[in-house]
Structures are given as C-alpha cells and as structure tokens.
Amino acid sequence: MVITMLASLPALVSRLRLKQLRLLIALDEQGSLHKAADVVAISQPGATKALNEIESAFGTRLFTRTSQGLEANDLGRCAIRYARLIHSDLAHLREEMLGILQGQGGRLVVGVIMGAVPHLTRALSRLRARQPELSVEIVEDTSARLLSLIDQGRVDLAICRTSVSRRPDDYDCLSLHDEQLKVVANPAHPLANTPGLSLEQLAAYSWVVFPANMPMRLVLERAFSDAELEFPRYPLETASTFATLMLLQEDPNLVALMPRETAQSAARAGQLACLDTAQVLRSEPYGVISRRGSPLSAPARLLLEELRDEPAEGLSGG
C-alpha cells in the first residue's frame, strides 16, 4: 500500500484508545480477529469496527487479510511493538503507584555500563534489604544508548558518562568515580604469567576491543599512539561483556581491556587472567546520571543514597 501521509501525533492521541492497542496485541498473538475479540472481551463485529478505527486513525493499513486470518505488515508490526511498550509502561505505572500508596516498594529502572555493574549490584543489595518489595530492572548498555533511554524517560538513573553526548549539559551528574582498567586474557594465554608486560609485547596479539569512539576504545588508541605503536589490525569489536568473555575463553591468544573490578571478578572465578602490565590504564570517570530538571522518584533517590555511600576504594567503571 502506498502511503501518502500518516496521521499527526495530536490526531493519534485524540483517536486511539487503550483497548484498541490491546486489540493489536491480541491480533498479533492470536492471528485471528475472532480469537482476538474473545481475548479483549468484545464481539467480533466490535473487533472489526475497532480495527477499522485503528487503521483509520493511523491513516494506513496495518494488516493483510489472508485465507488464514490477519497478518501484520511492516507498519502493523511497528504499531504492535509500540502497543506492547505502552501496555508494559501502564503496568509499571500501576506497580509504582501501588508502591507509593503502600509506603514501600515501587519500581526502579536503572541503566549501567559494564564496569559499573559490581558497584550497582552492591548498592542494590543494600537497598533491597531496606525495601524488599522494590521491583528493579537493570539495563546494561553503552553510555550513548543509556543517555538516550534517560531522554525517553525509560530509565530513572544511569551509571555512565555524559562525554559521549553532544549535549552533556542536559544531564545532572550526581557523583563521579574513578576508573582503572586491566588487560585480560584466557588463563592459558602465553603471557598470562609474565610480569611487567609492555604494550609492545601485547601488540603482537589479536585484540577484542570496544567499537570506535567509545571511551575504553579511545583509552586504548591513545595508549598505542603514545607508545608510537600501530593500533592492532583486524580487531574483534564488541561492547558486550559476555561476548568478550566468550571470545577470550575460546581463543587463548586474544587479549582485551576490561574495567578492573569486572576483570578481577572473572579472574577469581577462573574465567580470565589479569595480565601484569607495566602501564596503568585509566579511563575517564563515570557518574550517576539523571535528566536535568527531572525530579527523581523515591526509589531512585534511595538508590542514589546507596551509590553515594559506596566506599571509594571499591569503585571501578567500564
């Protein structure tokens, strides 16, 4: 179907109803208007009318009528995805309001970069001891993506860096923590037990690195540049902690850079070896970030208190 113009946002807000969005989800789950109508508890003619109203509100067809039933097209799958998000947000809204009414509990969504996960989990452990009915969602991602989630209102707080944003002044940085990095490898790596390794020695091996322009990638690039060494050619690029760990375990000749505490935790479990390097690598500090001018929820304020109480010697980021 050729689209000439989608409905404006004010038009969608005024015409769409929550029960219609629930119908979209049911249609996706059931594949049949008749079955979807039963799920939403309306008649089949009512469901047909509601679907026509939904497509009319958007100004385009969302489903293809087939002999097997209704099949969402690309626009329909997009609408269904956001219908699910809205439904989930309403469930979270009710959960948080219930917690407020009961004077405890509630819901908290916090974003975190890889190296700050140990810092966050310790703070959350103390917080949940005080608020056992608190529901918490942890979103681990890059700083850039976490800042985007803050902008969208999908996380309450994020432990990350604002330097990756073109508008760092849009955020409040509630506290700053230092970050030390470690070079890690498979315990069977040829240099695993060699003291005082130089970057030149490590340059001979293949690296797992963060994607371009990410803070930890920039640290490594600067270190190689300062040592007048060529940055490792043909690296494996990933921002995933799990992927990095799996790659190192699979190939004993790979090396990577990790936040100190994450690396030490994996080393204690026998999963990795922290290589003894002569050079100490540090990245820029990370902070507890929120959207400037946006008041924090009660659970977010409690978490912030716990994060501020974290002993300075226990901090490292990623």
Automatic annotation (TrEMBL):
One of its GO terms (molecular function) is DNA binding. GO terms for cellular component: cytosol. Keywords: DNA-binding, Transcription, Transcription regulation. Residues 16-73 form the HTH lysR-type domain. InterPro entries: HTH-type_LysR_regulators (IPR050950), LysR_HTH_N (IPR000847), LysR_subst-bd (IPR005119), WH-like_DNA-bd_sf (IPR036388), WH_DNA-bd_sf (IPR036390). Pfam families: HTH_1, LysR_substrate. Belongs to the LysR transcriptional regulatory family. This is Transcriptional regulator, LysR family.
